[in-house]
Write a structure and sequence with these properties.
With about 110 residues, the protein is mainly α. Helix content is about 80%, strand content about 0%. The chain starts with a helix and ends with a helix.
């Protein structure tokens, strides 16, 4: 998934679009949301027990990485974009994790 997103980013730039254009930033937020949902789902799927606890660990890790990114930002993307990335990531991971945990519970019922 990550490789596919990087290839789409490269194609976007190759087409002559600026990496800081509004369209690129919107595309990036949408791809972050998609990757977050998939990441949350896969985390809950491979968790041997307490799936949502593992999903919350992924959320914490994502927020940690986002915080590091905010602290070391080189100026390519605005702080508001990075905060928006975190705002999109958190519910996406939780949604994916909840969906998998819910399906797991229904299968065992």
């Amino acid at each position: 998934m990550g490789v596919a997103i990087m290839m789409l980013f490269a194609a976007w730039s190759y087409a002559g679009n600026s990496p800081t254009s509004d369209g690129f930033l919107q595309f990036s937020l949408l791809s972050t949301a998609a990757a977050a949902v998939i990441g949350g789902y896969v985390t809950a799927m491979v968790a041997p027990y307490a799936a949502m606890r593992h999903v919350l660990g992924l959320v914490a890790f994502g927020l940690f990485i986002t915080s590091l990114s905010l602290l070391t930002a080189s100026g390519d993307a605005s702080a508001s974009y990075q905060v928006a990335n975190a705002v999109v990531m958190v519910p996406g991971v939780l949604l994916g994790g909840y969906a998998r945990a819910h399906f797991r519970r229904r299968a065992h019922a």
